[in-house]
Structures are given as structure tokens and as C-alpha cells.
Design goal:
about 210 residues; 9-stranded mixed beta sheet; 2 domains; Aminopeptidase; GNAT_dom; alpha+beta; about 25% helix; binds coenzyme A
């Protein structure tokens, strides 16, 4: 029997000019597109609205208000090693979230994922939507393994990653999980609940 080949829904998309109209589960319109240098202005303005907790979950340290030049490092990226997307929320297309995959060299098939949804829009499905598209885009970019470092108290991020539908491994060490998604194959609903915790060095950890 010939198995139908699962097609990546983003097949054919130009990753450097990615632009996708989507909706959250609640039906809110969201545009997901490649980050642009001028996003730095809106990012700079949003910084003071971010909670210390969100910043800590993203950067694992306390972050002071960055300068425009510092923000530019996030918005002006090398497309060979960075795949960076933003999510624009609602009819006004406000910047609501940013996520990226970074690989050490242009030919590496392993990338580290990170993302942040602004506090005001958290827990409304935006993170899931952005990361779903980011990982799908990453597969087209040649990524077969996505790695994320996640604080052990970051339940939403752990749930989100485990629910993307890729075989997932979690390794716990000193307060953080290294989560690895095997993205060789397209996501599969069965994988959403099928993950393995390889090392739990802390009693009572329930990822
Ligand atoms: C983690 C983060 C990206 C999640 O994005 P989000 O838009 O808030 O999350 P979503 O609404 O898409 O929900 C994702 C999952 O978390 C769950 N979740 C959401 N809020 C939750 C909460 N307060 N407690 C527990 N689970 C929660 C959702 O139920 C969902 O799981 P499900 O689909 O299995 O139901 C976002 O909260 C964030 O940016 N946090 C700060 C920065 C950060 O942690 N970055 C990740 C670093 S790797």
C-alpha cells in the first residue's frame, strides 16, 4: 500500500518573506510574518509592559530596559542562521509575540527555539499558534531537531511544546528542562501526549 506523503502546510513559502493570515482558537485574527528591522520600535515600546516573570522565563535572568541598538540585534537577523517570526494581533495588527529558531551554522539541522508573548495577550492561544508555525517553517528550513530550554515552573511552555505533535523528550537539570522535539516527520496528534522524561533529578517534578 502506498502511504500518502504528509505535506507541510507551508510548502513553497518564502521563509524570508513569510506572511500568513491565521486565527486563534477564539477566532481572533492574527498575522504571522517574518520579523522586520522596523519592528524594533514597537518592541522597545512594549518592553516596559512585560512582567519580570515573563522576562525571566524567556531570558533566565533579570533584564533591564534595552536600548534601541540592543533591540536591533533581535530584529535585524541573519536569515541563514535565524528564523524569526512575529505574531500581530487583532485588526490593528499590534505586535503580540515573537519567536525564533537559531542554528549554530547555516547547514545545521538543529535549532534552539525561544519565544515571548506579551503579558496582556498570554494564555489566549497566541503562543501555540506562533510556535506551531515557527516549527513548521523550521522543518522547511531543514531543521530536524528543535531544542528549547524551559524553566521547570513554566507550565504553559511545557504544555505548549508537548502539544505540538512531535516526539518529545524532556531532560531535567537544576530547575530547567531541555525539551527536544524530533521534527524529522510532520506532527502527529498521537505524539502530543507521547513524550519521555529522560532524567528527573528533582523529586516530584511533573513536567
Ligand atoms: C510560554 C508562552 C510562550 C505561552 O504562550 P501563551 O500564548 O501564553 O500560551 P497558549 O495560550 O498558547 O497556551 C499554551 C498552553 O499552555 C496552557 N496554559 C496557558 N496558560 C496557562 C497557565 N496559566 N497555567 C497552566 N497552563 C497554561 C494552555 O492551556 C495551553 O495548553 P493546551 O493547549 O494543552 O491547553 C507565554 O506565556 C510567554 O511568552 N511566557 C513568557 C516567556 C516564556 O516563557 N517564553 C518561553 C521561553 S522558552
Amino acid at each position: 500500500m502506498v502511504m500518502a506523503k504528509a505535506i507541510n502546510p507551508l510548502e513553497g513559502v518564502d521563509l524570508e518573506r513569510f506572511y500568513l493570515n491565521c486565527q486563534t482558537r477564539e477566532g481572533a485574527p492574527v498575522v504571522i510574518r517574518t520579523i522586520e528591522p522596523d519592528d524594533k520600535y514597537e518592541m522597545l515600546a512594549l518592553y516596559p509592559t512585560l512582567s519580570q516573570r515573563s522576562l525571566y522565563m524567556r531570558f533566565f535572568r533579570v533584564i533591564q530596559q534595552p536600548t534601541l541598538d540592543e533591540i536591533e540585534r533581535y530584529t535585524r537577523v541573519d536569515p541563514k542562521t535565524h528564523l524569526a517570526l512575529v505574531a500581530l494581533w487583532g485588526p490593528e495588527q499590534r505586535l503580540g509575540a515573537a519567536g525564533r529558531l537559531i542554528r549554530a551554522t547555516p547547514d545545521s539541522d538543529v535549532a534552539e527555539l525561544s519565544c515571548l508573548v506579551i503579558d496582556e495577550l498570554q494564555h489566549r492561544g497566541l503562543g501555540r499558534l506562533l510556535n506551531t508555525k515557527l516549527v513548521e517553517a523550521g522543518r522547511l528550513w531543514g531543521i530536524t531537531r528543535v531544542i528549547a530550554l524551559v524553566h521547570s515552573e513554566n507550565t504553559p511552555m511545557l504544555r505548549l511544546l508537548k502539544g505540538l505533535g512531535y516526539p518529545t523528550e524532556l531532560v531535567y537539570d537544576e530547575g530547567e528542562f531541555t525539551v527536544t522535539l524530533d521534527t524529522h516527520n510532520p506532527p502527529c496528534r498521537d505524539n502530543a501526549t507521547h513524550h519521555a522524561t529522560l532524567t528527573a533529578m528533582h523529586q516530584g517534578i511533573e513536567p
